[in-house]
Amino acid sequence: MAAMMKNVRIYLTFLSAFLIFLITPALNGNEADIEVLMVAQEASPSDLDPGVNPNEGLRGITWNIYDRLVSFGVKTLPGGILSYDYQNVIPELAESWEYDKDGTSLIFHLHRDAKFHDGSPVTAEDVKWSLDRSISVAEYSWKGMNLAGFYHTDQFVVIDDYTIKLVLSNKNKFSLIELATPIPCICNSKLAKQHATEKDPWATEWLKSHSAGGGAFKLESFTPGVQFVLVRNDEWKSGPLPKLKKVVVHIVLSPEIRKKMLEQKTIDLAYELPLKETEELEKAGKYQVFAVPIESAMRYLDMNVTKLPFNDVRVRKAIAYAIPYDAIYETIHKRGMKFYGATQSNNSADWPQPSPYNTDLKKAKQLLNEANYPNGFKTDLYLDMGTLDVVEPVALLIQQNLKKIGIEITIHKVKADVWGTEILKKQMPMVINSFGSWLNYPDYFFYYNYGSVNTAFNTMSYQNPIMDKYIDAAMKTSDKTVYEENVKAMIAKAFEDTPRIPLFQMFQDVAMLPNVHGFVFWSFRQLSFTSMYKTPIIKSPSNPLDQQGSEPSPGH
Q1: DSSP conformation letters of 428-470
Q2: Do residues 143 and 215 make contact, with C-beta atoms less than 8 angstroms apart?
Q3: How far apart are CA 244 and CA 82, in angstroms?
Q4: CB of 506 within 8 A of CB of 298?
Q5: For the stretch 430-446, what's the b/e string if a residue is b when 16 or more beta carbons lie within 10 angstroms of its beta carbon?
Q6: What's 272's DSSP letter?
Q7: Per residue in 401-445, pLDDT tens?
Q8: If we measure between CA atoms, which residue out of 221, 218, 251 comes closest to residue 232?
Q9: b/e map 76-107, b = 16+ CB within 10 Å
Q10: How confident is the model at residue 244 (pLDDT cuts 50, 70, 90)?
Q11: Fewer CB within 10 Å, N or C, the chain?
Q12: What is the pTM of this model?
């Protein structure tokens, strides 16, 4: 049955891609083409409601159609790749801001000419309603806002039409920069309220399939699991106007087909390619291929500590010793940092860092005996179908090795568009998942993953007051020595309790035609089209390869 379902999935994927080939003309580099960007990616938005569901595709689409009060500037990484800069907060809807005299409030001054997509002005009332919504409508969003010190709707105070005060419960380094992450989108409250009901005061049902944004791009169409189309918002005032007039994003599950579409020039950009396809395109020498090591990010195996037998630390450590780390590293083509086999205690506050575990089946079996599981046990491992090209080979290696110590694993595949919903339920005993910090701080990572706030990304359901103490102390201190002491303590505690087994660092891979420019790596690992643009392709008789035209300076 599993083989048959896999064949059906492959057939449907090829059929959808074939239809795209039929309806999508090859790009030829003329002036009309350079205003339209054609993309193929794997992640499909689950819906359109910002800040409700931890779905990667959803973050990508809402980032482009909604604004936030502030955003991040851009820096250049070694090798010339552009990246967001979390240490450089820049204006978006707010043209300026300041702390009040005692530092307990942030006061934002809005652009007076900013408008939503329907032409209505953006006011402080819209900002308040949106921030109220972000701490009211969903656990996923309000836990992030709590991190920044926002817990109650009375903390958002309208001063006048273009001024709003945010009262801080506990000022910390995240109070401002969390407002530049994907969660606190600013919605057209007047429009959304028209579709609210007594049972649905935040218009969640309507916003699942409609946009109430004012961002750089408008939503032209959205077909879940197939494609979405964005058009430029020519009235956008929150930054330099994008050069692209239209973006068409096809959802194509097969990486082989995404690669083929790029080679056939039916798309400009192939996103979320796995290692094999990325390396093949690199070797071809005809494309721009970026492989960005994602800071403060990892792929990992989580064990739900509220489920038997994973409530026993000896079982968790047994599994940590049974993981075939070297084979997994070979599977990912030896790319990224190894997160295993630390030979001695790492007295460093750097994160991520290798765990003390390596493959030792004898020690794994000994720990299972101590935990009264001499014959092993049966359990279930869950995977996100949106990441199967990477995680399925890893899961199979883990399944094979754990069987050697008597642990039988059944692998389950969850559809990408409901993965976020499923991880929020905290019912899966084992998962392979990933997390990349939106802000590159160890305490930010640990708050979301190991804190007792038990966010969506804590798929271990791990809660420990000692860990909470370290996280809280690190977040609140401005003393570097105290900070590093607490970070070291939380890292040691994570490895001691072992609810999570780090596997490897993640890369963000993107391949583009040579005339596509302005790609910026963002920590939420989706495309921002605001800075992207294309130049005409010059056909040279002396060179069989198409060459990019002259490159104008990039925008915002």
Answers
A1: -SEEEEEEE-SS--HHHHHHHHHSTT--TT-TT----HHHHHH
A2: no
A3: 18
A4: yes
A5: bbbbbbbbbbbbbbbbb
A6: S
A7: 999 999 999 999 998 878 888 998 999 999 999 988 888 899 999
A8: 218
A9: eeeeebbbbebeebebbbbbebeeeeeeebbb
A10: very high
A11: N
A12: 0.81
Which amino acid belongs to residue 501? Answer: I
CA distance 407 to 497: 20
3-class SS of residue 54: coil
Q: Flag whether pLDDT at 464 surpasses 90.
A: yes
Contacts of 503 (CB under 8 A, 6+ apart): 298, 299, 300, 301, 323, 325, 328, 339, 340, 394, 432
Own/partner pairs, 92-101, CB within 8 angstroms, 24+ separation: 92/67, 92/68, 92/180, 92/238, 92/239, 93/67, 93/68, 93/69, 93/122, 93/127, 93/186, 93/214, 93/238, 94/69, 94/70, 97/69, 97/70, 97/176, 100/165
Element housing 532 (H / E): none
Three-state DSSP at 504 gives strand
Range from 105-109, 331-335, 384-388 carrying the lowest mean pLDDT: 331-335
Q: Please tell me the distance from the alpha carbon of residue 319 to that of residue 547, in angstroms, as a whole number.
A: 51
Residue at 138: amino acid letter: A
The single-letter DSSP state of residue 218 is E
Residue predicted with more confidence, 543 or 207: 207
Among 492, 534, 512, 468, CA closest to 259:
512
Q: How many CA atoms lie within 13 A of 542 on its CB side?
A: 0
Residue 315: Cβ-neighbour burial (10 angstroms; 0-12, 13-18, 19+):
buried
pLDDT digits (tens, 9 = 90+) for 486-522: 999 999 999 999 999 999 888 888 999 999 999 999 9
Alpha carbon distance 19, 226 (integer Å): 11
Cβ burial, residue 196 (10 Å; 0-12/13-18/19+): middle
What's the confidence (pLDDT) of residue 344? 63
The mean-pLDDT minimum among 128-142, 270-284, 530-544 falls in 530-544
> For residues 49 and 37, is the Cβ–Cβ distance under 8 A?
no
Backbone φ, ψ for residue 67 (5° rounding): -100, 165
Q: Which amino acid is at 516?
A: V
Neighbouring C-beta atoms of residue 119, cutoff 10 Å: 8
Q: Is residue 443 within 8 Å of residue 436, measured between CB atoms?
A: no
The Cβ of residue 478 has, within 10 Å, a number of other Cβ atoms equal to 8
CB-count exposure of residue 274 (10 Å: 0-12, 13-18, 19+): buried
Q: Give the type of residue at 184.
A: P
Nearest 10 degrees: Cα torsion 409, 415, 420, 422: -50
Residue 95: its H or E element: strand 94-99
Quickly tell me which residue has 């039929």 as its tokens: 22
